[in-house]
Inverse folding.
């Protein structure tokens, strides 16, 4: 009953160095360690993809305080200069979606 998606945030957006260390631990089964991908990167990848389920996921992450609006904005600011490496991203549309998410629709 678990949704497993074989897609990582770094397939959609640039991620910050050291994301592995910021990836929250879930469990260990034998030698297998299971972690979430860094949560701010997850949120930003979902914002960039923009599917309805992605929007709901980000809203839940914010509601559950897994990430904060300021965390998301700071992470976006840290990766903004490297967006050119992802030609599928419309930088202005991504920026607007991030700002709408963290500051609300104006």
């Amino acid at each position: 009953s678990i949704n497993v998606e074989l897609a990582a945030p770094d397939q959609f957006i640039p991620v910050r160095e050291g994301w592995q260390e910021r990836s929250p631990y879930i469990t260990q089964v034998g030698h297998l360690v299971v972690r979430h991908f860094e949560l701010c990167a997850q949120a930003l990848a979902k914002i960039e993809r923009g599917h309805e389920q992605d929007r709901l996921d980000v809203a839940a992450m914010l509601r559950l305080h897994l990430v904060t609006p300021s965390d998301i904005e700071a992470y976006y600011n840290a990766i903004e200069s490297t967006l050119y490496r992802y030609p599928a991203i419309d930088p202005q549309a991504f920026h607007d979606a991030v700002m709408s998410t963290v500051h609300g629709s104006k």
